[in-house]
């Protein structure tokens, strides 16, 4: 299944609460036991081809996916909001609560996939969420921006960075050392920050799929 085919089968949804309305795209394969919520990075959205590619691989592995905009359009115009980790985490918590109210989703184990600043939001939201978060994957992330919660993260966390993403590797290594949960660290050789090099995003998707299959299908 290519990205276009996957996006064509997604359902358009809206996550609404107290004046906030966030558009999203939901895909639920038959027999899904887990759902992964995507927290994208700065300048991205629910339509991100990179995240939708990863989501398509998860879909084929029997995992439901929800990609949504963390900011409303007027908010996204203010660049400060893009780096407001508390705000982004609150939106991820809102989406997590929304899934817990949907009859088809409420019994699924939940995980987070975060990219760039979205990875910091995922880590922070996992600590604050009343819904247990069973696994986290960070792609080219900035977990250092969630420094105040790293020691409290309990969800098994996989950190993936590009081998040529200089500077970001070191930030991820430092954050990784502070995590006290089950964890793994993967460097994708030859990849830069956006994993645009041939085969690198495919490797990210494989690593994420295996991590989520392992943890979201486990007995809770």
Structural commentary:
The protein is of the alpha/beta class. The chain has one domain (3-216): 3-Layer(aba) Sandwich (Rossmann fold), CATH 3.40.50.1820. 38% of the residues lie in helices and 24% in strands. The chain has eight helices and eight strands; from the N terminus they run αβββαβαααβαββαβα. The chain has helices at 3-9, 49-60, 73-76, 79-82, 85-101, 117-128, 168-178, 200-216; strands at 11-17, 20-27, 34-39, 64-68, 109-115, 133-139, 157-162, 183-188. Strands 1-2-4-3-5-6-7-8 form an eight-stranded mixed sheet, with helices on both faces. Helix 2 (49-60) crosses helix 8 (200-216) and helix 5 (85-101) packs across helix 6. The mean pLDDT is 93.
Give the secondary structure arrangement, pairings included.
Blueprint lengths: L2 H7 L1 E7 L2 E8 L6 E6 L9 H12 L3 E5 L4 H4 L2 H4 L2 H17 L7 E7 L1 H12 L4 E7 L17 E6 L5 H11 L4 E6 L11 H17 L4
Parallel strand pairs: 3-4, 3-5, 5-6, 6-7, 7-8
Antiparallel strand pairs: 1-2, 2-4
């Amino acid at each position: 299944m290519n990205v276009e085919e996957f996006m064509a089968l997604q359902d358009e949804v809206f996550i609404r609460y107290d004046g906030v309305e966030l558009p999203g795209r939901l895909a639920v394969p038959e027999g899904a036991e887990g759902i992964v919520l995507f927290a994208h990075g700065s300048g991205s959205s629910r339509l991100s081809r990179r995240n939708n590619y990863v989501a398509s691989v998860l879909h084929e592995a029997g995992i439901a996916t929800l990609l949504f905009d963390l900011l409303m359009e007027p908010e996204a115009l203010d660049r400060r909001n893009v780096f407001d980790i508390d705000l982004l985490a609150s939106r991820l918590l809102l989406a997590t609560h929304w899934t817990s109210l949907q009859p088809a989703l409420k019994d699924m184990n939940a995980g987070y996939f975060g990219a760039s600043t979205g990875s910091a939001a995922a880590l922070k939201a996992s600590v604050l969420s009343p819904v247990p978060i069973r696994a986290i994957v960070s792609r080219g992330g900035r977990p250092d921006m969630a420094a105040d919660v790293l020691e409290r993260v309990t969800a098994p966390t996989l950190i993936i960075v590009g081998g040529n993403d200089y500077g970001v590797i070191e930030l991820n290594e430092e954050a990784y050392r502070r995590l006290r949960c089950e964890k793994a660290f993967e460097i994708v050789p030859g990849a830069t920050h956006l994993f645009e090099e041939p085969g690198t995003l495919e490797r990210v998707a494989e690593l994420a799929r295996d991590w989520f299959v392992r943890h979201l299908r486990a007995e809770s």
